[in-house]
Amino acid sequence: MKFETFRKSVQLSKEDISRELLAENRDRIKIKKEKVAVRNLVKIMDAALAISNVKGFASMSLRDLSSEAGLSMGALYSYISSKEELLDMIQQQGRSVILRVMTENLEGVDDPQERLKTAVQVHLYLSEVLQPWFYFSYMETKNLPREAHKKAIEAELFTEQIFADIIEAGVREGTFRQVNSRLSAALIKAMLQDWYLKRWKYERRRVTVEQYAASLMDIILSYILVKKKEEEGHGFFR
């Protein structure tokens, strides 16, 4: 799957995401006109991510957010009542998008090797389209209130479980060799995170997201695929 094909096939523009966010938080947001609400939610989300990447969400005030978004404090309060509420909305929406897109793309893909490849590609491509959110979510997890922190950890484990389930299915079918599926899934997730947390490194080397996905799959498959008997015992995750 090419990255551009993926990007065009999913509804992941800022406006699309803000429209979903509005629909899921109608009880919180006071603005009734969808067009106005979506436009200002884009401004609020962009501002929150921009400020957080400079000085951290914990240090951001609502006045900082108001100024960066170009909205009055009164207008801002029409959308959120506190930083904590905004944080919950951002995290909740991000998790919802990941769950929806991963589920849609894996539907009907039964072959373990192809399913694992699809899961890795989709996660990488999602992190490319939504890089500011992925970076924000990872960096701000430690600053979340207890309940929100718990949800963030659950989301992390949920995506790991997708990989673990695929690996376990491949082992049962004889496509993959016997490995620790949870540890392997955690290592895959760590390599996926390196892409969106250290973008500068790959930009400097002119590595595209498609190249990274292909190289990552080469590494994963060289370890996990069933090998000829004489080749067994050389797995580097042993």
Task: Quickly describe the structure.
By secondary structure, the protein is an all-alpha fold. 72% of the residues lie in helices and 0% in strands.
- Biggest sheet details: none
Q: What is the number of helices?
A: 12
Question: Based on helices, strands and strand pairing, what is the structural class?
Answer: mainly alpha
User: How many domains make up the 3D coordinates?
Assistant: 1
Name of the level-1 CATH class: Mainly Alpha
The radius of gyration over CA amounts to 20 Å
| Poorly predicted spans | 234-238
The pLDDT mean sits at 87
Measure the end-to-end span.
Answer: 31 Å
CATH topology: Tetracycline Repressor, domain 2
Describe it.
It is a single chain. The chain is mainly α and 238 residues long. It has one domain (3-231): Tetracycline Repressor, domain 2. It has twelve helices and no strands. Helix 6 (83-106) runs parallel beside helix 9 (146-173), helix 7 (112-129) crosses helix 8 (131-140) and helix 7 runs parallel beside helix 10 (181-197). The protein is elongated and about 65 Å long. 31% of the residues are buried. Residues 234-238 have low confidence and may be disordered.
Per-chain topology:
Elements: H1 3-9, H2 14-24, H3 34-55, H4 62-69, H5 73-76, H6 83-106, H7 112-129, H8 131-140, H9 146-173, H10 181-197, H11 199-204, H12 209-224
Helix pairs in contact: 2-3, 2-6, 3-4, 3-8, 6-7, 6-9, 7-8, 7-9, 7-10, 7-12, 9-10, 10-12
